């Protein structure tokens, strides 16, 4: 073989030649079957020149070590430069950097050599620190679980030893620097934003080495950590973020209560209507907390305005007048609509990328839309009758699903003639629980989808993965509702769902449900409308040109609007959605009628 020194660069690093492979095959073949080398040109040259060696090789004992082949092929491959050995690369030019063979070769532009040095503490030292942290955490946890009420749990502050603001190893945290801010605003912000981890969670704070399975004692505790105003296609709402004592998830409450932001709407509401506000957020978190702290966490009244530095009630003259009306000697008007509530479970696929395997995205959108709708308030007499007939906690007694109609109000009360009452602003909340995939998580849901693609329905796929059909719980949702002053004895709720387990789950946690409001998939409503167009078509042959145009226009519109990745968008539809909805009705007992035209 020619010496690599005399070869060009490309030759030196090209693949092995046929001759090389022949030698490799010869050297690694069973010695008992050794015959003449295969007749390639190079091998012929070799056998003519080194016939004696070939004979000698025959007499060598058989060598079975598999390492031989590897070592020889490494020699044939030759240079380190085509090696895929990452250790060598890392040592010379930085980890993995030289996997690119086209890297510059000039020594002047070679990356600096890496000096690797272990900074790991000795194991004994690490174990000692872990044991110390564990003991500290356990004693703290005992102290926490012995306190039974929400108020007895300390509010985190930057000075509190278990606050994440106090730093992970008890050292002083560097102060946030705000170059344009001469005032101590940075400190205010720190006080007002106590935690980026779950305040109630056992792993909260710097003491993270705690056994995972600390049993939950007593009922779930929740605390609203912050709220803010969000403008949406369905109007302005308040997003509340909650921590809880059950899991490390940040559950949300999306409150729609327009009277909090619009004084004109407030005037239209019945007297004494309570605003939907978080008790835990509004409470005093520590002695001497500042207005700015309250503002930053969202514990303000009314609407924030530029330059505002006080957490003040509505300040317009009208508002003041109205407030005095409401809180004076005048009787509160109890004839008000009850808050419409949806307990919604997180669905990344349906809500973010517009999956049409389920109807979760449109349900979230539809729930916000329905809650924001103005409501027809019934007269005192019909309201009294309604509550008397249906205001029981028993699941069998909740109201039947109202007629599906996209344009009408969600409530059965919408069917009342408008002269039998008056229209008042809507109010309610979507509790957004981070219970992805009916509680099994996104990873498992993705796996379940693959099992569904093999022909299993949504329930069977869960079971095949070793999960329950539905692993969700509603204890945290119930506590959030109570924190918002909803579902208690004074203020029962209307629940937007078809799922009987949700109704039962909330009732078990002490939530008073005075009405169940059903949710009809938009596609089913559209199907019904389509069917209507079809039947019209059959009866009016002479109008077919117009009707077909209309139908096509409607179909095009529907196609454009299909997919529900964004709030305010259209309907989910398709064969897979049909299958999912049917399974919910047939196997999970969801209380909704499948329209005849799609059965
Ligand atoms: N495991 C699993 N979860 C799913 C699937 N499709 C949707 N989900 C999840 O199901 C939850 C929504 O539950 P649904 O059963 O659709 O509806 P629901 O909330 O129980 O009932 P409604 O209140 O009537 O809407 C979300 O957490 C979704 O991520 C699926 O195929 N498999």
Describe this structure in words.
This protein is an alpha/beta fold and 599 residues long. Among the domains are: 4-99, no CATH class; 522-585 and 593-598, no CATH class. The protein is 38% helix and 9% strand. The chain is built from 22 helices and 9 strands. The chain has helices at residues 9-12, 18-28, 41-49, 51-59, 67-77, 86-93, 123-146, 185-192, 263-268, 279-282, 291-297, 317-327, 348-352, 360-372, 380-390, 442-453, 458-464, 475-483, 500-508, 522-539, 544-561, 575-588; strands at residues 222-232, 235-244, 251-256, 340-345, 375-378, 421-424, 428-433, 493-496, 513-517. The strands form 2 sheets. Strands 1-2-3-7-4-8-9 form a 7-stranded mixed β-sheet, sandwiched between helices. A two-stranded antiparallel sheet has the order 5-6. Helix 20 runs antiparallel to helix 21. The N terminus is likely disordered. The structure holds guanosine-5'-triphosphate (GTP). Guanosine-5'-triphosphate binds at residues 345-347, 358, 360, 363, 435-438, 440, 445, 448, 458, 462, 497-499, 502, 519, 584, 590. Guanosine-5'-triphosphate (GTP) binds at residues 345-347, 358, 360, 363, 435-438, 440, 445, 448, 458, 462, 497-499, 502, 519, 584, 590.
